Amino acid sequence: MTSFFNKEPDHAVPHLDTPVSPLRQRLIDDINMRRFSRETQRNYQDSTETVAK
């Protein structure tokens, strides 16, 4: 499992009890694949949370 803020999928990631939607998982995977900076990752997350509300 990859984390939104981890660039390397092999890192140990704490397990979250809340499920991740398929769309959010795709966003996470795309961001990790493109190796965006951590700041960009946070900006994407904040923006998608705002749009989703």
Helix and strand sequence:
HH
User: Could you tell me the mean pLDDT?
Assistant: 76
Strand content: under 5%
Radius of gyration: 11 Å
Which residue ranges are poorly predicted, with pLDDT under 50 across at least 5 consecutive positions? none
Distance between the termini: 26 Å
Individual helix count: 2
* Major sheet attributes: none
Report the helical percentage: 40-55%
Q: Assign the structural class, choosing from mainly alpha, mainly beta, alpha/beta, alpha+beta, or little secondary structure.
A: mainly alpha
General form: globular
Query: Count the strands?
Result: 0
Quickly list its features.
globular, 53 residues, mainly alpha
How does this model look, in words?
The chain is mostly helical. It has a domain at 22-52. It has two helices and no strands. It has helices at 22-34, 38-52. The chain is globular, with a radius of gyration of 11 Å. The model has no long low-confidence stretch (mean pLDDT 76).
